Amino acid sequence: MSTNANTQTIADRITSVAELRGLSVNALMAAAGVSKSVVDRLKAGTMPAADKIAAIAGALSVPTRTGMDGFFLCAMQKRDS
C-alpha cells in the first residue's frame, strides 16, 4: 500500500468515526485542537505529525497503533450513549 493510499485510508477512517459519533469533521478538529487542514492534507497524501493523529484519536476516544507505514486509527463501532 502506498503512502498516499495509507493517508487516504486514515482520512476516511477519521471521517467515518466522526460521523458515527455524530460529529462533523470541523467539530472533531476543533475538539482535537487541530486544523481541518490536517484531514485535507491526509487526503492529499501528506502524513501529519504523530501528535496531531494522537489528538484526533483522543477526541474520538479511539486508540492509535503504529505500523510499518505510520499511524492508523483503529476501527471502532459507535458506542451506546
Describe what you observe in this structure:
This protein is mainly α and 81 residues long. 56% of the residues lie in helices and 10% in strands. A hairpin with a 2-residue loop joins strand 1 (64-67) and strand 2 (70-73). The longest helix has 18 residues, at 3-20.
Write the layout of secondary structure elements.
Blueprint: H1 3-20, H2 25-32, H3 37-44, H4 50-60, E1 64-67, E2 70-73
Antiparallel strand pairs: 1-2
Helix pairs in contact: 1-3, 2-4
- Fraction in helix: 55-70%
Poorly predicted runs = 75-81
Distance between the ends: 36 Å
Q: Which term fits the overall shape?
A: globular
Strand order of the largest sheet: 1-2
Largest sheet: 2 strands, antiparallel
Q: Figure out the total of helices.
A: 4
Order of helices and strands: HHHHEE
Strand content: 5-15%
Query: What is the number of beta strands?
Result: 2
